[in-house]
Amino acid sequence: MHCHASCINSMLLFFFLKPFCKPLCKLHPQVLYIKFSSSASSGLILHVVNEKQKEKYDLSSLCLQVLLVFAKEDSQSNGFCWACEKANFRCCMARTPESALECFSEKHHDLVIIDHRHSRHFDAEALCLCCGNGWMLTCVLFLRPDREEASVMPLINAGFNRRYVENANMMACYNELLQLEHGEVRAQFKLRAGNAIFTALEQSQEAIEITSEDQVIQYVNPAYESIMGYQQGELIGKEIIEVPKSEKNKPDLLETINSCIRKGKEWQGIYYAKKKNGDSIQQNVKITPVIGQGGKHKDRRKGSLDVRSTTSRGSDGSSQRRHSSMARIHSMTIEAPITKVINIINAAQESSPMPVAEALDRVLEILRTTELYSPQLGTKDEDPHTNDLVGGLMTTKLSQRFFVHTEPHHIPSHLTTPLSLNDIPPRIAQTMENEDSWDFDIFNLEAATMKRPLTYLGLKIFSRFGVCEFLSCPEATLRSWLQVIEANYHSSNSYHNSTHAADVLHATAYFLCKERVKQSLDPIDEVAALIAATVHDVDHPGRTNSFLCNAGSELAILYNDTAVLESHHAALAFQITTRDDKCNIFKNMERNEYRTLRQAIIDMVLATEMTKHFEHVNKFVNSINKPLAALEENGCHPTLFNRILVKRMLIKCADISNPCRPQELCIEWAGRISEEYFAQTDEEKRQGLPVVMPVFDRNTCSIPKSQISFIDYFITDMFDAWDAFADLPNLMQHLDNNFKYWKGLDERKLHSLRPPPE
């Protein structure tokens, strides 16, 4: 893109509007500045002042003005107030339409959020129309989940830019404000700046012509029309060579100009142009090439309104700030997949029209977040059971710190010699006869082993998979390791005890035997999966991450409130294993193989953290299921898959497979997890901590409802995806039966695990 500025007189316009633009042209030392101010009736007003009167105006330093229109104070309005404070935005609160309009007329806020949950208090659409009349702003309509409109057209017609469904989580409010600031609000700033710049071009006394990279005329201003005698319609879309040139120019002048432009340099000099009436006119011309990032390509993206297209020395200016980080990324020798995607989109922007480029800008903002696959945790029908499960399992609700001292983990100094696999008592061996079946009853083994099922089941499963041979460790070392790991599970926990670990180990072994899983994984992956399943909840205190963070526990402090339990399980498992040669199953491994195995185990244990549940499931669906389905439609049978994603999905499904177990086992597990949550709620009330899952009050909780919500929100989609990959019809049938069972109890208004006896 090229800019031609003809110096007809000695006057020059210079725009000072950081960070959106740089000097338009610079032909004379006597400089005019343009100052921008806002008006309710006419938007941005241009004030031209001379050098002595110049002032610096930087939109990047302006504090965003936010107007919150809420009929009454509640947790949601408080959430947005907190978010505004955190983002350093100026926030005003209005309770009535009259006060909202009065406040807006005084300050002309950049962002207006209107609460539409209580529509009887005011008409949100009418209020938005009044605020937006003659003024470009970003307006958000705030809704309850059960009040979503069937069509968004009435909202768009009223002037709303966005719809936000009720979610009082402070970080959700904060993230929403940041997205609005970097999306719609900045776009409005740029649009206002663009309009102002266009106005300045139109009013300039300089003749300005803007062409594309291939020298097609895209814009001429009125001064150009007046001087040259042409109308815009006669020039727009034509190549420069189609416009007659004066014969007075030197023969090699055009070649000299083109040579400068190709090198990315400005050209300035005397040029003779031919007016429409045939007269030649001498012009002092400056031609400035607008070069893209790094000087390697020309920017064609924003047409005649590209600020850089009218600069003389601004090709490295503030309007290229958006590309600066991308320049560094382009120079990297190693790129992550998300970086490659961003680079592809960025490259596509270069040849895209303005609306597409702006849409891609928003895509890039989303892709640069760290929570690509995490949904906004609003729920359908305002189901409190789902809300509490999400709040308890997927978020960390921090409050005033209560510091709790935890005792060091006790590891027995002397372990009784465990039994050999061949010497297992017959009654225990009998309970494990069908351990390779999905319908295996772990509770029978728990009773037969007096709550030590992990050691015995571990011995049999690890033997079946040849783990000792792979690790080059004696069977006695494996037995000692299983026993010390089991000793560090809390038998007092109703759910997170060694029986749960044994159950997850059983499910993991079952999944590893499925044909497609076997094809996908190497022997080291199988061993990592079995070990990870064994240790994935070691030393679990029977409380959630949210509880530990709220209580200010030593573990939460140690792990910075991030994946507290999962980090602890993985770290403690390796501490236990490596501190004593008698149970160090990794002792004889080659160093590099051990590091690979260790990383795989840690990754799988961390994958059981529920805050990233949707990220793992969505990655599996998009990276494995969808490509697999496409290949199978074409008759292909792929055998290579992303092993990391397969292993994460495997242990996640094994960890929360209870709803897919035979009905009696499912009911027993539901009772155990409910009891553990009841105990946590009791302790939170005793200590005065926030109750993270209020529905799990043992006096009022409906266990069927909690199971229905858990299956609906977490289980169904995940096991649909896992079944599509591993082929698990029996599990899906159990899941269907169990869901119907819980629905039947709920329809009868029963809160218990089982119906009353007939």
Automatic annotation (TrEMBL):
Q: Which parts of the sequence are annotated with region: Disordered?
A: 284-327
Q: Which GO terms describe its biological process?
A: cAMP catabolic process; cellular response to epidermal growth factor stimulus; positive regulation of ERK1 and ERK2 cascade; regulation of DNA-templated transcription; signal transduction
Q: Which residues bind AMP?
A: 496-500, 537, 655, 707
Function per UniProt: Hydrolyzes the second messenger cAMP, which is a key regulator of many important physiological processes. May be involved in maintaining basal levels of the cyclic nucleotide and/or in the cAMP regulation of germ cell development. Binding to RAF1 reduces RAF1 'Ser-259' inhibitory-phosphorylation and stimulates RAF1-dependent EGF-activated ERK-signaling. Protects against cell death induced by hydrogen peroxide and staurosporine.
Q: Where is the composition biased (Low complexity)?
A: 308-318
Instruction: Name the Gene Ontology molecular function terms of this record.
Output: 3',5'-cyclic-AMP phosphodiesterase activity; metal ion binding
What SUPFAM superfamilies does the record tag this protein with?
HD-domain/PDEase-like, PYP-like sensor domain (PAS domain)
| Superkingdom assignment | Eukaryota
| Entry note: cofactor | Binds 2 divalent metal cations per subunit. Site 1 may preferentially bind zinc ions, while site 2 has a preference for magnesium and/or manganese ions.
Q: Where is the active site?
A: 496 (proton donor)
Name-wise, this protein is Phosphodiesterase
The signal peptide stretch is 1-23
Pathway info: Purine metabolism; 3',5'-cyclic AMP degradation; AMP from 3',5'-cyclic AMP: step 1/1
Chain's gene name: PDE8A
Name the cofactor(s).
a divalent metal cation
Main enzyme class:
hydrolase
The taxonomy runs:
Eukaryota, Metazoa, Chordata, Craniata, Vertebrata
Limits of the PDEase domain = 420-749
Q: How does it assemble?
A: Interacts with RAF1. The interaction promotes RAF1 activity.
Family under the similarity heading: Belongs to the cyclic nucleotide phosphodiesterase family. PDE8 subfamily.
Q: Which organism is it from?
A: Myripristis murdjan
Give the enzyme's EC designation.
3.1.4.-
What InterPro entries does the entry give? HD/PDEase_dom, PAS, PAS-like_dom_sf, PAS_fold, PDE8-like_REC_N, PDEase, PDEase_catalytic_dom, PDEase_catalytic_dom_sf
The positions annotated for binding Zn(2+) 1 are 500, 536-537, 655
Every copy of the PAS domain together lies at 193-264
